[in-house]
Each structure stands twice: as C-alpha cells, then as structure tokens.
Amino acid sequence: MSYNLLKGKKGIIFGALDENSIAWKTAVRVHEEGGTFVLTNAPVAMRMGQIDELAKITGSQIIAADATSEEDLQNLVIQSMEILGGKIDFVLHSIGMSINVRKGNHYTNQNYTWTQKGTDVSAMSFHKVMQTLYKADAMNEWGSIVALTYMASQRVFPDYNDMADNKAYLESVARSFGYFFGRDKKVRVNIISQSPTPTTAGSGVKGFDGFIAYADKMSPLGNATAMDCANYTVTLFSDLTKRVTLQNLYNDGGFSNMGVSDAVMETFVDNQ
Ligand code: NAI
C-alpha cells in the first residue's frame, strides 16, 4: 500500500546488492511512496549483484562509489544533485563488511589489517558520507539520514566478531555527527537496530541460522523482516518524524527489551 509519504523527495540509497538486501527492499518502498533517488554501491558489487534490475524497476540511475573513498563520495554527491535536480532529502547507509568474519578469523585472533578495513567500510564510511554531504551543503533542511545497526553493538553476541565493534562506532558517529547536522542544517540522523535478517552480509555470520531462530523465539512479535525495516525507514524519511534525531531505534519485534521468553524457557524446563 502506498501513502505518497515521500512525494517530491530526492535521495541516495547505498548498499542494494541483490533482492534480499535491506537497501533493495527500501528502494522499492521509497519508489512506491513517490521518492526518487540515485542507487550506489561499491564498484565490485556492481559486478556481483543485480543492481541494474533494481534501477529499472525504480527508474533510478546508478553511480558506483566505494564508500571508503572521499573522492568517490564527493563525485557521488555532486552527480546525484545534478541527476535529481537539486539538494537531497534522504540518505540510506546500508553498508557492512568484515573480512575477519568472512575468512572465519575468531574475535580473539584478529588480522588487524582486515579489522581496519572492516571498520573503514562498516563505520567510518558513515562519517565520510555525512562529512561529504555536510561540506557540500547537499542536504535540504528537514532532510533525514539513516544507517543500519545490530544489537551486538550493545550486548555480547560472540560470533558477531569485529562487526560488534564496528556497529558501536557507527552508532556513536550517528549521535556525534547528528548533533552538528541538526544544529547547522536541520537534518536528522538516526540508526535502525534491525533483527537478524537473511541477506548476503547477515548470512556471513557464523551460526546465523541459530542466531535468527533464537532471536525469533525471544521476540514477542518475531523477527522484523527486511521489508519491515524498509517500511520503518520510509517513515524516518517522511515528514511524519521531523524531530526524531540522534536515536538508535529498535526494529526487532521487541527483542531488545526481553530477558527471556516462554518459548526459550521451554527448551530448558524439565517437564517430568
Ligand atoms: P547486504 O550484503 O545485502 O548489504 C551490504 C552492502 O554493503 C552490499 O550491497 C555491499 O556491496 C555494500 N558494501 C560493502 N563494501 C562497500 C564499500 N566499500 N562501499 C560501498 N558499499 C559497500 O546485507 P544487508 O543485511 O542488507 O546489510 C545492510 C546493512 O544492514 C548493513 O549495515 C548490515 O550490517 C545491517 N544489518 C544487517 C542485519 C542482518 O542480519 N542482515 C541485522 C542488522 C543490521
């Protein structure tokens, strides 16, 4: 169902790799709500993914940009304003990657070159995106910037590895940069903390199937899907949430406030 919540709004969406990507679902929903946008991803992802198909569905143009490269980001922002015909109203940062996770390096046995690369891609890139937008004065007043995080930033999930640290960094950047963006440009910055979701990045985490089943059993409403996340993001891009900023917003079926659920307890109780 469409409510035209984003009619006339223009944006940039990072991180749509394939149809499972949270950014893909968000792009589809933003399009349905009347928003127009540029799609972007790392040059390597252009070759692996199916972003061309998404561009066709949503009538969007694609600009390749490595989110760790300031030069690529400057080019992206300038070109996006040209394509969209003016300043930007919304930005989705939906980027995450850990080489230690991908290569199966345990948290207690990091390859720090990989750790640094993961931090650059998953967390510092959010600062770089915002600094580029801020310096270019590219955001319209009452614009909205959203990035995605996971609960392992705040509580221990052993197999989330160095991504837990990257997400803690990302969340801090949202608050710190969000202050300046709010004060100087009237732009809001928020983070959505999403349930485990079966995507390329998500499924890379060791024991992901157990992870997702446990979260589902713990959450009174069950896990939030990628589409739920897309819908939540649409509200944050809309004018209905104008003064929500610097927040870490949980889209997790209630997981973050649970101690234990009946469904999880059942597996430990002796029924004899
Ligand atoms: P995904 O694998 O579909 O998306 C990750 C994206 O990051 C890909 O499109 C990839 O090409 C892009 N990327 C990697 N390196 C890049 C670079 N140097 N420059 C630009 N883009 C780059 O997976 P998903 O799950 O949709 O991930 C989106 C966001 O959601 C990530 O921040 C992830 O950590 C977060 N998240 C995911 C959860 C899950 O369980 N899937 C749970 C909570 C948060």
Automatic annotation (TrEMBL):
Entry EC no(s): 1.3.1.9
Pfam families xrefs: adh_short_C2
Record key words, sorted: Fatty acid biosynthesis, Fatty acid metabolism, Lipid biosynthesis, Lipid metabolism, NAD, Oxidoreductase
A single GO BP: fatty acid biosynthetic process
Positions annotated to bind NAD(+): 15, 21-22, 95, 167
Pathway: Lipid metabolism; fatty acid biosynthesis
Catalyzed reaction equations: a 2,3-saturated acyl-[ACP] + NAD(+) = a (2E)-enoyl-[ACP] + NADH + H(+)
Protein name: Enoyl-[acyl-carrier-protein] reductase [NADH]
Source species of the chain: Winogradskyella eximia
